[in-house]
Amino acid sequence: QKEVEQNSGPLSVPEGAIASLNCTYSDRGSQSFFWYRQYSGKSPELIMSIYSNGDKEDGRFTAQLNKASQYVSLLIRDSQPSDSATYLCAAPGAGGTSYGKLTFGQGTILTVHP
Amino acid sequence: DGGITQSPKYLFRKEGQNVTLSCEQNLNHDAMYWYRQDPGQGLRLIYYSQIVNDFQKGDIAEGYSVSREKKESFPLTVTSAQKNPTAFYLCASSIGIGGGAAYEQFFGPGTRLTVL
What we know:
The complex is a heterodimer of chains A (114) and B (116).
Chain A: E1 4-6, E2 11-14, E3 19-25, E4 33-38, E5 45-50, E6 54-58, E7 61-66, E8 71-76, E9 85-92, E10 102-104, E11 108-113
Parallel strand pairs in A: 2-11
Antiparallel strand pairs in A: 1-3, 3-8, 4-5, 4-9, 6-7, 7-8, 9-10, 9-11
Chain B: E1 4-7, E2 10-13, E3 19-25, E4 31-37, E5 43-51, E6 54-57, E7 64-66, E8 76-78, E9 87-94, E10 106-107, E11 111-115
C-alpha cells in the first residue's frame, strides 16, 4: 500500500461547482497534512495545512481531516477555471527513517470548465 | 523578498557530463530537500538535509550527490551515473524538525534538465 494515495482523477467540474479531492494515508502516526497546488509547468504551491481532526477553512478552500479513517480531503467551493491544476496531498512520517520528510501523493488533475 | 531560488531554469546536458543545479534560500530554514518530477508523476525525494554539513539519501539517490556547506545553499549534482536524468528538479525548504508547521515545505521554481 502506498503511504499517501489520492483519488486517481482526472476530475472535471463545471464553473461554480464544488470540487472534492480525497487523500488517504497509511501511517497512523502522521499528525500534519498538506495540500499543494501545481499549475502545469510550475512548482507546487502550499495552499492548506491541517493538523487536527475536523475542518479548516480558508476562503473558498476547506480541508477536512479524519484521523480515525485516515483520510484528508480538500473541498473547493465556487470552482473557477483558474483552479484548474494538479493538487498534491502530502504527509510526514511519524518517526524513524521517515522523520523530517514529506511523502506526496501522485496528484489529482482538476479541470474546471466554463 | 524571502524565498527560494533555483538556477538555471533550463539546463541541457550531453550524456556523460556531470551538471550542478543551484538552490538558495533566504528563509532561514534549517531543512532543505531535492525532488525529481517526471511528466505525469508525483514528487520523488532525492536527498534532504536537516542541518548544515549533514544530509540523507531519499528514495532515488543513486546517480546524484549533494553538499550542505552553508545553511542557505543545497546544490545538487547530477552525475553521469544517473541513467535517466531528464526531468523537472525541485528544491524545497522547511523550518525543519518540530512537527506541525515545521514540516511545511516551500518550493523553488524548479530546473528543467534535458539530456541531449
